[in-house]
Amino acid sequence: MSESDNFIEITNPQGEIFKGYLGVPESGSGPGVVVIQEIFGINDFIRTTVDVLANHGYVALAPDLFWRLEDDVSLSYSDEDMSKAFELFGRFEPEGAIGDIQGAIDTLRALPQQEGKVGCVGFCLGGLLAWLTAARTDVDCSISYYGVSIDNYLDDAANVTTPTILHIAQQDAFVPPEAQEKLMQMAASHGQVEAYLYPGCDHAFATPGRDSFNQDATHLSVERSLGMFERVLKG
After folding, report:
1. Marked catalytic residue, from 64, 100, 120, 124
2. What is the mean pLDDT of residues 209-235?
3. Residue 3 — pLDDT band, cuts 50, 70, 90?
4. What pLDDT sits at residue 4?
5. Is the CATH number of domain 3-233 3.40.50.1820?
6. Whole-model pTM?
7. C-alpha to C-alpha distance for 222 and 137, rounded to whole angstroms
């Protein structure tokens, strides 16, 4: 099977159709996980994340959330592609993407391979969207990696009723100390939200190949994330 064969159609609640990259475990079935992209589209890192989750027994789906702006966005972390990614991000409406993510959740639940519950995990822009997904969709759990601007959406905390993890990089310039403190305080008083601070780590610490990649922090965060998925989605 070629990589293009891994893309399936997703229909959002408005009836609009777009694509997503699907990974299915060798067993043929499992709980679902929506993988929410960074500003770089469905690139190698996102596709690899889908494949890794499939290897762990999950039916994973990464929706193409840039479909309204440009088809088939898959960018590297080069300076040229970084400029392109920020240009796309400048035109992207995060709140408008929640319907597309609900569509991905619904699509997963309709697949014959998907059994049980559906969670999500998102990175950077996807980290913000994972937070909004926890508050505004019927997902069963949510994990946010270094989500940007979550502190601007803390009113949504009241609507988060399922287990949610926030992975926060202490040296993240996109999430300054005052924003980190707001997130940590919110999580401390919220019965469903766990917030973890990773000392000395920068934005994108869990992306292999990035200058900020930190193997120890990645291992710890993945252990925590898979633990939640195991507990909530397979329990």
Report:
1. 124
2. 96
3. low
4. 58
5. yes
6. 0.97
7. 23
192-222 burial: b if 16+ Cβ within 10 Å, else e: ebebeebeebbbbbbbeeeebebeebbeebe
In one letter, which amino acid is 2?
A: S
| Contact of 61 with 108, CB cutoff 8 Å | yes
For 151-180, how does the pLDDT look when each residue is reduced to its tens digit (9 = 90+)?
999 999 999 999 999 999 999 999 999 999
What angle is formed at CA 157 by the lines to CA 160 and CA 14, rounded to 5 degrees? 60
* Annotation marks residue 203 as catalytic: yes
Query: Is 124 designated active site?
Result: yes
- For residue 235, pLDDT beyond 80: no
Q: Are 48 and 89 in contact (CB under 8 A)?
A: no
**Looking at 64, 140, 172, 202, which residue is catalytic?**
172
What is the pLDDT averaged over residues 84-88? 97
Domain ranges (residues) in the chain: 3-233
Q: Is 172 a catalytic residue?
A: yes
Mean pLDDT to the nearest integer, 34-50: 98
